[in-house]
Amino acid sequence: xxxxxxTAPPATVLPAxxxxxxxxxxxxxxxxxxxxxxxxxxxxxxxxxxxxGACFAALLGNExxxxxLLAPTTQSGPATRHYRDGSLVLETVFDTPDGQVAVIxxxxxxxxxxxxxxxxxxxxxxxxxxxxxxxRFDYGNSVPWVTKRPGGNGIVxxxxxxxxxxxxxxxxxxxxxxxxxxxxxxxxxxxxxxxxQGESHLxxxxxxxxxxxxxxxxxxWAEWSKRLAxxxxxxxxxxxxxxxxxxxTFTQTGPRPxxxxxxxxxxSAGCATPPSPCSPSCPRGTTMRPSPGPIGCTAASPAxxxxxxxxxxxPASVG
Length: 319
Fold this sequence. Notes:
319 residues; two-stranded antiparallel ribbon; 5 helices; 14% helix
C-alpha cells in the first residue's frame, strides 16, 4: 500500500505587491471608484458599483488577484503626480533614462457603461512601456474567459454575468494568464487603453472616443467644483476634499461608502476574500450609508438629508 502524504504540498503564492495606502490615488465616476498606485497599477476596483465584487484586488494580495499595470519598463526616480485642477483626472509623470512620459487616468461620469480610460502621452524621448491586465472577478477568485476583440486590438473578458472589453491602439497578447503589451511612446505620441464594463447577455458596450471622454470628464468636474463658495487660505484642500466626497457619493441614490477599498483576509492561496458582514467597499460593517449632509444642510431629518441631493452633492452648501 502506497503512503499517502498527511498534507498536500503548499500552493505557490506570490509575495504581496500592494503599496502603502498613501501611495494610492482615487479616480471614480460616482458609481464606483478605483485606486491607482504611484507605480501605475490599478490595484482595487469594485465594478460596476461600490457594492459590487472586486475585479482588481491586488490591494489585498498580489497581481494574481487582479490589477491593471501601465508603467515604463525602466525608471530613474519616483513618479510625480497630480490631479488636473478642479477635477478627478489623475496625471502621473514618469522620468526614465529614455525620456519622460505621462499616464492620464480617469473614469467617465454619467457614462452608460462604467469605463476606465488610460492615456499614455510621450513628453520627451522615446519611453518603452509595459501594460499588464489581469482581470480577476469575485475578489480574485474568478478567472474570466478571454478572447481577442473582433475587428481591432483588445480583448473581451467574460465571467458569468459580467463582460469587460478592452479597446486600445496597441497590439496585445496573452502571457501567463494575463493580457500584456510592450510598446514605446515617443514625444508627441499617445497610446490609449479603454476598459469598459457591461453585462454578458447584452450587446458589447459601445466604444468611447478618448479625447471626447477626457474633455467631458474635465468639464463635468470643473463645472461642479467651481460652485464652491469658500475662498479662504485652504480653498484648494477644501475643494479636493469635496471632490473626493462627491466621487464617493453614489449618484443614483445619494449614500456614500465608508471607503473606496475593503478590509479582508488573505486565503492560503493568496486570494483576497470579501469582508463579512461588510459590503465589499465598506470596511466598517455597513453598506453604503446615507450621508449626514455637509455643513450648511438645513434638511430637518436624516431621511430628508438623504433625499436632499442638492445638499449632499453641492459644494455651495459648505459655507
